[in-house]
């Protein structure tokens, strides 16, 4: 029988928030064990680092240019011919997702046999004045009815008073820990182990909403970090120092000078959510041992994007900086079925589009020609392979719309509306504190990276390249024409 496949994704987790990766504060013992039983890819990126386009990359294996989502836009149908779950279902896998999908329509199965859904608080499904009954939140979410059945019919996701994009405010979860959305994903996933078809290999996607805001960890986890001498966020010499509009006082700010006490509490809660996730993932691993499937299951762990968490006085995601665009990525093989170089770290640059071809490769399933990503399995096995030199990422983001190219050792960022350029030496400056674009010693590198971006953007419908040069001020769009038709 083919190996079982477990895909674990979390939402908005930074690449560096793993004790295995050397974080001085965050404790992630179960994820660390995953890395010891597999391979840690230290230069993994989300090319378009917000929820919808990141999930398009995961489920289709396509680059953002191919899947067409180059920014964040809701209510654009998912009509892709080849998606990960569907390809595995066709060759006999029993497939299920529990948690976040963030697709359109919200009940689109995307090839899964079953989806137990909780996308978090999605504004467009909560707006009662614009949605039909079939689109309303009560009809498209499975967690909230479950919660109300167990803890009270009047409960809602907004009871804590925290917005779903509030990256600077936090408070502890107010109900029993077993009712937290993170625990719910694991509870439902364990139930899948009970009722799956034992004659078939399974593909299970455990898709957590946290540590995406609201920052609401159970009190026991907040107590692990609250009051510790937490490291301050890094602030580059290029970052804005002033906040004349007091944007930092907005709980859902993209940037600004946030009051120090509030920021420290938010950072503590963010770390607490990650440790809570880690322990619940460990709970699922215990259940896998009990059901006898731990050692014939391949596990891939990743995040859809990061969280800036105050770096450079910026918050949330979408931007190209490491805190936002770089993600954890671990391929683990507890039963040593794949003969990975267990306990090693790979430096090659990988992207979320590589998840689908990797898992299809593991299942010995043909990879559709629509897939742009590549299987990372040869990298994990130290087998001969030709790998990419860099990846191109981007995000439509108003006046901060941008493109970036990186190989994990350097990063070039171009802001398409202003023409601003940034170049970072990630080997010497891994947190991007010094923009070397004006340093003559980097002139040749700057030219090389700019030419790489020009190559990526040639022929784009927005008109980013004219006469071989980057064109500033082109109208940006969140979705390309071919998926809007």
Overview of the structural elements:
With 485 residues, the protein is α/β, with parallel strands linked by helices. It has helices at residues 29-36, 51-60, 64-67, 84-90, 123-126, 137-140, 143-151, 181-195, 219-225, 260-290, 322-325, 355-362, 377-381, 443-457; strands at residues 4-11, 38-41, 44-45, 94-99, 114-117, 202-211, 297-303, 326-327, 329-332, 344-346, 350-351, 391-395, 402-406, 410-415, 421-425, 465-466, 469-470. The protein folds into two domains: 4-385, 3-Layer(aba) Sandwich (Alkaline Phosphatase, subunit A); 393-483, Arylsulfatase, C-terminal domain. Helix content is 27%, strand content 16%. The strands form four sheets. An eight-stranded mixed β-sheet has the order 5-4-6-1-7-9-2-10, with helices on both faces. The longest helix is centred in the middle third of the chain and has 31 residues, at 260-290. The model has no long low-confidence stretch (mean pLDDT 96).
Write down how many β-strands occur, each being a DSSP E stretch of 2 or more residues. 17
Looking at the overall shape, the CATH architecture of the largest domain is 3-Layer(aba) Sandwich
* General shape: globular
> End-to-end distance, in Å?
41 Å
Task: Catalogue the unreliable spans.
Answer: none
Major β-sheet annotation: 8 strands, mixed
Do you know the CATH topology of the largest domain?
Alkaline Phosphatase, subunit A
Feature tags:
485 residues, alpha/beta, Alkaline Phosphatase, subunit A, Arylsulfatase, C-terminal domain, 2 domains, eight-stranded mixed sheet, four-stranded antiparallel sheet, 14 helices, 17 strands, Sulfatase_CS, metal ion binding, sulfuric ester hydrolase activity
């Amino acid at each position: 029988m083919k190996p079982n496949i477990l895909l674990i994704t979390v939402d908005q987790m930074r690449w560096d928030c793993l004790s295995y990766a050397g974080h001085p504060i965050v404790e992630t013992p179960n994820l660390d064990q995953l890395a010891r039983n597999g391979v840690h890819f230290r230069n993994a990126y989300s090319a378009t680092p917000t929820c919808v386009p990141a999930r398009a990359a995961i489920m289709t294996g396509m680059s953002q240019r191919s899947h067409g989502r180059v920014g964040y836009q809701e209510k654009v149908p998912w009509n892709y011919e080849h998606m990960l779950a569907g390809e595995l279902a066709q060759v006999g896998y029993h497939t299920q997702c529990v948690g976040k999908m963030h697709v359109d329509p919200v009940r689109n199965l995307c090839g899964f046999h079953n989806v137990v859904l909780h996308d978090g608080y999605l504004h467009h499904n909560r707006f009662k004045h614009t949605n039909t009954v079939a689109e309303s939140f009560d009809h498209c979410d499975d967690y909230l009815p479950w919660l109300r059945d167990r803890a009270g019919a009047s409960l809602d996701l907004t009871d804590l008073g925290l917005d779903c994009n509030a990256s600077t405010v936090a408070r502890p979860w107010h109900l029993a820990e077993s009712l937290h959305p993170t625990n719910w994903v694991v509870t439902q996933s364990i139930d899948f182990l009970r009722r799956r078809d034992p004659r078939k290999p399974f593909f299970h996607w455990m898709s957590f909403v946290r540590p995406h805001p609201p920052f609401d960890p159970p009190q026991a986890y907040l107590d692990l970090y609250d009051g510790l001498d937490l490291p301050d966020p890094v602030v580059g010499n290029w970052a804005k120092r002033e906040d004349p509009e007091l944007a930092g006082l907005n709980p859902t700010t993209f940037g600004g000078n946030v009051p120090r006490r509030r920021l420290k509490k938010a950072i503590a809660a963010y770390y607490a959510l990650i440790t809570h996730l880690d322990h619940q993932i460990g709970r699922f691993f215990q259940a896998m041992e009990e059901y006898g499937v731990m050692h014939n299951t391949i596990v891939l762990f990743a995040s859809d994007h990061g969280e800036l968490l105050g770096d450079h006085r910026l918050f949330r995601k979408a931007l190209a900086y490491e805190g936002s665009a770089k993600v954890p990525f671990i391929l683990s093989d507890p039963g040593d079925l794949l003969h990975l170089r267990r306990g090693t770290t790979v430096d090659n640059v990988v992207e979320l589009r590589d998840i689908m071809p990797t898992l299809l490769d593991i299942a010995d399933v043909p990879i559709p020609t629509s897939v742009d990503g590549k299987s990372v399995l040869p990298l994990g096995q130290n087998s001969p392979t030709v790998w990419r030199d860099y990846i191109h990422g981007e995000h439509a983001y108003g006046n901060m719309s941008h493109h970036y190219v990186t190989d994990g050792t350097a990063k070039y960022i171009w802001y398409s509306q202003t023409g601003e350029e940034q170049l970072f030496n990630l080997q010497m400056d891994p947190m991007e504190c010094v923009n070397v674009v004006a340093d003559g010693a980097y002139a040749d590198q700057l030219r090389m990276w700019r030419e790489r971006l020009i190559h990526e953007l040639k022929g784009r419908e927005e008109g980013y390249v004219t006469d071989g040069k980057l064109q500033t001020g082109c109208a940006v769009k969140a979705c390309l024409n071919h998926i809007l038709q």
